[in-house]
Amino acid sequence: MTNDDGRRMPFRHSRFVILSSFVIRASSFLIFFPSMFPAGSRAGDNLGILGANPRWSVLEKYQGTITHDDFSRLIPNVYCTHGFAPDLIEINEKTARILMNRESQKFFTLRFAEDDTTRKPVPRLWRPAKTLPPAKADKPLVGLKIALDPGHLGGKWAKMEERWFQVDSSQPVQEGDLTLRVARLLAPRLRELGAKVSFIRNRNEPITAKRPDDFRELARKILIKNGVPQPRADVLDPNDPAKEQTIRWQSQILFYRYSEIRRRAALVNFKLHPDLVLCLHFNAEGWGDANNPTLTDTNHLHVLVNGSYLAEELEFDDERFEMIRRVLSRVYDEELPLADTIAVAIAHTTGLPPYQYPTTNSTTKVSKDVFARIQAGDYEGMRNVNGVERKSIFREYADSVADGLVQYYSKARCSRDR
Ligand SMILES: [Zn+2]
Q1: Does the predicted model carry a pTM greater than 0.90?
Q2: 267 Cα to the center of ligand 1, angstroms
Q3: Does the pLDDT at position 27 exceed 60?
């Protein structure tokens, strides 16, 4: 519900954030600093929080798969739009030199393909629409492996993860429960269309086995490193802005954001191997006091795709490695047109206006209309909400995502231009 979890490439169009990405990234948040010594790390490692040492040798498989022109276009225009330190990536005529580790001055050399006719096929574990066999009109998603990622945890964790608010004595709004509801409506629709659907989370519980207490020591080290020499153990007042400097708050965020998202990414990348991951969110921010929230008339939708890494994110060896791997697996060629098609389908169904994602933490309050529709819950058919006949907000979300997928795959997998 806040925009920090989806602060990726701005892509117009938000009420929901659908991160249509093929690898879930644990996006950096709040604290930037070199490795906090995860198990087995070495001196000079420079990793994101709870990050793993990158296996650069994996990139050998991508030698000769991308041309100089494509690489030189994707790096500045899609992935590194905020710039980066000059020693991180050096693009030459036939090769690119990518920094593996600054302290040891190790570099990875990527060799470009001469041209498009001689370039080698791109190795990958997910299948672009074009490589899927043609499908019958009523089963446009046949064989497609889709993983659904209902954002956040919900349930008893909703307050801790600050995805909870309540108006007077109404039903509390918990983003993790809303997203799971949408996923459960979406899954049977996608299966009817032929897709193989798996859930990254199918209950209001974390998939990480860790809990906040497991991160108390790491939280303390992080705070000390960030200039809080003697961090307090606990939050005294939940509205106190200094709560972020407590061990409790830091250990909680290490649990529900970093550990949980990294576990989800591992599940996707090492076990499920889907062709597509849909990360479902209901975005809103800054409603003030969670027990007395401020509602608003404005509402919008946006879809996010991976890109636009910050210069400070690219300083981390693991983040840089993942970014380069995404460039080389040519994810963007698939996720941009797919996200675009889904965004148009959602805009069409919901009538929501396009939206420029804020680059600062500007305030987006909870919409009055959305609040009324969430309170109305799920129902079949149409119902009058604030004077307009609408489907339930959950069905509208699920249906419009399914519509977008149908449109994209019907068109993309039938065309035989490659
Ligand atoms: Zn969210």
Answers
A1: no
A2: 19
A3: no
